[in-house]
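Hello Y.,

Per our agreement to keep a running log of every chain we model this quarter, I'm adding this entry. I've kept the format consistent with earlier entries: sequence first, then predicted structure.
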Amino acid sequence: MAKQGKRYLATSNLVDKSKSYEPAEAVGLVKRTASAKFDETVELHLRTASDPTHADQLVRGVALLPSGLGKQVRVLVFAQGDAARAAREAGADHVGDDDFIKRIEEGWLEFDVALATADLMAKIGRLGRILGRRGLMPNPKAGTVVQPQDMTRAVGDARKGRVEFRMDRTALIHAPIGKASFEEKALLENLATLVETIVRARPAGIKGDFVRSAYLTTTMGPSVRLDLPSTLALRVE
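Predicted structure for the entry above:
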């Protein structure tokens, strides 16, 4: 087992592992445990009651965080004609079709979010083996396949605080809620938005409790267990 560093051990002592923290207290605590020399990301980790082997219990969706993620998001849009013009005017970093398909096949991946109009999905399909495993493939369920009339809004959302969440093979959901440098109020608002969105995505086939445990952590810091009832009761004001 790897030996933990002095910095990690020091911040771990700030966390009572036997305690479940109210959301506001947990947010303040993870900010205190962020001791790395870079601005650490604050992450939410949820264990769900879903069965990943059942397609109707898979959880996936998009949350728009009111305080953003604290980083510049590079947006690629596969579009033509009016939709392409709208994407450029909305501030997309890259807009095109065949040219970017070729560049991606040659190894170019200098973007964080990919949007596409439905008419180009047949062309883009061959990129699935490249973009799919990186979570970059446009997908209707994730809201990244866009109607031309919605392009301006979609690009704007992508450049702000758009977070795509999906359950992994162990029924866990991991998603960022901002940076450790954010004010506590901003992190709490982002947390509330993400939790509320995930709870709304609860599969109909799940009986009983949907979320079984919840933790906050930073990139290099210890995890902080959240009090589940107060966390699930969070609402965006």
